[in-house]
Design goal:
The complex is a heterotrimer of chains A (161), B (130) and C (149). By secondary structure, chain A is an alpha+beta fold. Chain A has one domain (2-160): 60s Ribosomal Protein L30, Chain: A (2-Layer Sandwich). Chain A has three helices and ten strands, in the order E-E-E-E-E-H-H-E-H-E-E-E-E. In chain A, strands 1-3-8-9-10 form a five-stranded mixed beta sheet, with no helix packed on it. Chain A has a five-stranded mixed beta sheet with strand order 2-5-4-6-7. In chain A, strand 6, helix 3 (109-123) and strand 7 (130-133) form a beta-alpha-beta unit. In chain A, helix 2 (66-79) crosses helix 3. Chain A is globular and about 40 Å long. In chain A, 46% of the residues are buried. In chain B, helix 1 (12-24) crosses helix 5 (111-129) and helix 2 (38-47) packs parallel to helix 3 (64-73). Chain B has a single domain (3-125), classed as Response regulator (Rossmann fold, 3-Layer(aba) Sandwich). In chain B, strands 2-1-3-4-5 form a five-stranded parallel beta sheet, with helices on both faces. Chain B is an alpha/beta fold and 130 residues long. Chain C is an alpha+beta fold and 149 residues long. Chain C has a single domain, classed as CheC-like (Chemotaxis protein chec). Chain C has helices at residues 6-19, 63-72, 80-103, and strands at residues 41-48, 53-59, 110-111, 115-117, 127-136, 139-147. In chain C, strand 1 (41-48) and strand 2 form a beta hairpin. Classes of the chains: A alpha+beta (161), B alpha/beta (130), C alpha+beta (149). Chains in contact: A-B, A-C, B-C. Chains B and C meet through helix 1 and helix 4 of B and helix 1, helix 2, helix 3 and strand 3 of C. The complex binds magnesium ion (MG). Magnesium ion binds next to loops of chain B.
């Protein structure tokens, strides 16, 4: 079955039949976790770097912020039997969109999202297997549970991540 | 087969970052030795069996480039696989180091870059062990 | 007129703090009119080669602790010695990365070990050819580059 992940949301599956997909990743990050051994896959579509700007919202929906969404995503995967040593982590998005595309790279939300994401992986002792971040184009990201294949569609072109 | 690793950097925090990265990359590490300059590194190399060294350039007492020259001169350790982890941006010096058989990782690095390069080198180091 | 390297220094410092220190700049412009740093911690890195001089990095007093925690990936606050070690290494990385940007990729520099300076210590000699201010999530940073004549 095909599951669409909306903005500030996460979907997790243990079914080898499923496809997880999220559309129009701009400065947002799409994070994929896949454990082939435990057959656990998850896709997170997260918007903003730090929950400190609105802690109540983060309690309400941790998947809005990278610093609360990614740890929660990892925990949910572990709960379903995923093992740290088998996890494959991939990320896409973090583009410069709209006005941010004109200004310096480091001030854009997208690159802040990437920095906080890298920080959380480092803290959790995890490597990122593949990343397609930055640039100015929106992306669609999907995980095929049957094959573990991660695809990015951008500007009508499909590439494997 | 696990590898004994020597990490040489005058920053203790940097040494711990490099060691953490090796662990995250799934490198099968035996013992880890540390040194904060080239001279200390030579002492460690004299006293211990080491399969792979990660070496900084900018260090007091004896810098990384002098260390590598010294290692290549000593027949017992001349073949030691070496990865330079440094801020060095001079193409001239990087090429000089590569001619001495060292791989190069630029600081600031991401753990993923270190992981990839170390994996490549450890395959060679493992072959040497057999 | 001497060439200024303000933007290059800004980019190099932001890149180093982000890649190695997992810190990112807050909104642009905020740091420019914030006045001098209160009670800063200062590190200096001297270099020699085709040109000699020094890089000076001044940060707000709470920043080295955040930096050390980020770099080690630890849960607990890093001990004082580790905080200064992390900060000095950051200064070393910024210095090593700015030099080829101003002197070219062929130039070979000898970058000396970074040192923590007293706040009231006289600044490095030479002419200041670049200055940059960053407002990071861990606090404010001021970087300046000096070249000897
Ligand atoms: Mg050093």
């Amino acid at each position: 079955m095909r599951h669409t992940v909306s903005v500030a949301d996460m979907k997790l599956t243990t079914s080898g039949e499923d496809l997880l997909i999220t559309h129009s990743l701009g400065s947002c990050l799409g994070v994929i976790i896949y454990d082939a051994v435990a057959s656990v896959g998850a896709l997170l579509h997260v918007m903003l770097p730090l929950s400190t700007i609105n802690p109540e919202k983060a309690v309400d929906n941790p998947y809005m912020f990278v610093d609360t969404g990614v740890p929660r995503l990892l925990n949910e995967c572990y709960k379903m039997g995923a093992k740290k040593g088998n996890l494959v982590v991939k990320v896409a998005g973090g583009a410069k969109i709209g006005a941010a595309a004109q200004s310096g790279d480091f001030f854009a939300i997208g690159s802040r999202n990437v920095t906080v994401f890298r920080k959380i992986l480092w803290k959790n002792g995890l490597m990122c297997k593949a990343a397609d971040v930055g640039g100015t184009r929106p992306r669609t990201l999907s995980l095929d549970m049957n094959t573990g294949e991660v695809l990015i569609r951008s500007d009508g072109q499909v590439t494997a991540l | 087969m696990s590898l004994n690793v020597l990490v040489v950097d005058d920053s203790a925090v940097m040494r711990s970052m490099i060691i953490r990265t090796l662990e995250m990359a799934g490198v099968d590490i035996g013992q880890v030795f540390q040194a904060s300059n080239g001279e200390e590194a030579l002492q460690q190399l004299d006293a211990n069996w080491i399969d792979l060294a990660l070496v900084d350039i900018n260090m007091p007492v004896m810098n990384g480039e002098q260390l590598i020259e010294e290692v290549r001169r000593r027949s017992a350790i001349a073949d030691l696989p070496i990865i330079v982890v440094s801020t060095e941006g001079s193409q001239t010096r990087i090429e000089r180091l590569q001619q001495k058989g060292a791989k190069f990782i630029h600081k600031p690095f991401t753990p993923e870059t270190i992981g990839q390069i170390v994996e490549g080198v450890t395959e060679v180091a493992n072959d040497n062990q057999v | 007129m001497t060439t200024r390297y303000d933007q290059v220094l800004q980019d190099v410092a932001a890149e180093a703090f982000s890649t190695l220190g997992f810190m990112f700049p807050m909104d642009e412009g905020d740091s420019a009119d914030a006045g001098p740093l209160a009670d800063p911690v200062v590190a200096e890195v001297c270099f020699s080669g085709p040109q000699s001089g020094a890089l000076k990095v001044a940060v707000e007093p709470q920043l080295p602790a955040v930096l050390a925690t980020n770099m080690t990936g630890a849960d607990d606050q890093a001990p004082a010695e580790q905080q200064l070690d992390a900060f000095k290494e950051m200064a070393n990385v910024i210095c090593g990365n700015i030099l080829p940007r101003i002197a070219g990729q062929e130039a070979v520099f000898d970058v000396h070990p970074p040192e923590i300076c007293r706040q009231d210590a006289p600044g490095p000699g030479g002419q200041c050819v670049a200055q940059a201010g960053l407002l990071l999530d861990g606090g404010r940073v001021e970087v300046s580059l000096f070249l000897n004549a």
